[in-house]
Specification:
Elements (H helix, E strand, L loop, with lengths): L2 E6 L4 H10 L5 E8 L22 E3 L2 H4 L4 E4 L7 H4 L7 E4 L9 H7 L9 E2 L5 E2 L2 E2 L1 H4 L4 E3 L3 H16 L2 E12 L14 H4 L4 E2 L9 H10 L8 E7 L6 E9 L5 H12 L5 E3 L17 E8 L4 E8 L3 H16 L15
Parallel strand pairs: 1-2, 1-4, 2-3, 4-5, 5-9, 6-9, 10-12, 14-15
Antiparallel strand pairs: 7-8, 10-13, 11-12, 13-16, 15-16
Catalytic activity: N-acetyl-L-glutamate 5-semialdehyde + phosphate + NADP(+) = N-acetyl-L-glutamyl 5-phosphate + NADPH + H(+)
Keywords: Amino-acid biosynthesis, Arginine biosynthesis, Cytoplasm, NADP, Oxidoreductase
Pathway: Amino-acid biosynthesis; L-arginine biosynthesis; N(2)-acetyl-L-ornithine from L-glutamate: step 3/4
């Protein structure tokens, strides 16, 4: 069976990455691409690397144009998806790459986003450890999927195995992330100009204000955190177009041995294709995952500090967004989970 697909927000970075991956999916026909201010223009005017899709023209983003497809992907700014998802009742599968359907708590939405609150959908991080197993089980047969925030899924995947196994203290978590500016979208922003970021590292959303924090807390509670999930989260923009390198540390739980700590992560990801724990003593680079649907993870135990250190590298546009969305789509449709997704990055 071939599924007809519409991608909204197709002129942006996330939309472009969705289209790049979907273009090689044997079960998908990309029928419609939409945008807002760029409607009426050729897709390749905004995504010149997508040569196989040069025949497509960006249409207006309306419920009427998006309806009638088997699958709709929404790659819109936060707070804009809900107005369309409410109207797409005839679409069998909708995947939202924005934040509108990620959070289960209205209070968290109000505190970090504001505006209308929309019902939570199945969370699109298949490998995420939950108290009942893996998030993958919740995606089987799903008709509505919320793709993750790229920083949020990176940190959640980094820490959830330790929380689930009870070998780290979820009330004492710290994550510092080096992130590429593509995670902020394609619209022009002065602080993201090349002259502003080249040769500089620029922290932002410091002091517990980043919108992905409640998403991480929610994921770690789902992994079994019974008390407060306290996370100090600091992202730093660095001069690389795409990628996230997240260094997350947690206090080792009383009585947990080094072997038990490492066993928690090996048990969680030993059989996973797209989340891979590196051998002891190795840590990943963002260069190793560019263009891949792969999260590479290194784990170290700092007994002097009493902490476990997890360093995780992902491509924020692939595994962090579009790859996770397509992987989740494959699961929901009963297709091979890795179809159209690669573990191989692009180097140099």
């Amino acid at each position: 069976m071939t599924y007809s697909v519409a991608v909204s927000g197709a002129s942006g970075y996330a939309g472009g990455e969705l289209l790049r991956l979907l273009a090689d999916h044997p079960d998908i026909e990309i029928r419609t691409v939409t945008a807002h201010s760029n409607a009426g223009q050729p897709l390749v005017a905004h995504q010149p690397h997508l040569r196989s899709l040069a025949h497509l023209t960006l249409q207006e983003t309306t419920p009427e144009i998006l309806s009638g497809h088997d699958i709709v992907f929404l790659a819109l700014p936060h707070g804009q998806s809900g107005q369309y998802t409410d109207a797409l009742t005839d679409v069998s599968l909708v995947v939202d790459c924005g934040a509108d359907h990620r959070l289960t708590g209205r209070e968290d939405w109000d505190a970090f986003y504001g505006g209308a609150f929309h019902e939570p959908w199945a969370y699109g991080v298949p490998e995420l450890v939950t108290a009942a197993g893996k998030q993958r089980e919740n995606l089987v047969g799903a008709t509505r999927i919320a793709a993750p925030g790229c920083n949020a899924s990176t940190v959640s995947l980094s820490l959830a195995p330790g929380v689930a196994a009870g070998v780290i203290d979820p009330s004492d978590l710290v994550s510092v992330l080096a992130v590429g500016p593509s995670g902020a979208g394609k619209s022009l922003k002065t602080h993201l100009l090349g002259s502003e970021i080249l040769g500089s590292a620029n922290p932002y959303a410091v002091g517990g204000t980043h919108r992905h924090i409640p998403e991480i807390r929610q994921a770690l509670r789902a992994a079994g955190a019974s008390g407060d999930v306290r996370l100090s989260f600091t992202p730093v923009i660095v001069p690389m177009a795409r990628g996230i390198l997240a260094t997350s540390t947690a206090r080792i739980a009383d009585g947990a041995t080094d072997a038990q700590v490492r066993d928690a992560w090996e048990a969680a990801y030993g059989d996973e294709t797209f989340v891979q724990l590196l051998p002891e003593g190795q840590v990943p680079r963002t260069a190793d995952v560019i263009g891949a649907n792969t999260a590479l993870m290194g784990l170290a135990i700092d007994r002097a500090a009493g902490r476990v250190v997890v360093v995780t590298a992902v491509d924020n546009l692939t595994k962090g967004t579009a790859g996770a969305a397509i992987q989740s789509m494959n699961i929901a449709l009963g297709l091979p989970e890795g179809r159209a997704l690669s573990v191989n990055g692009v180097a140099p």
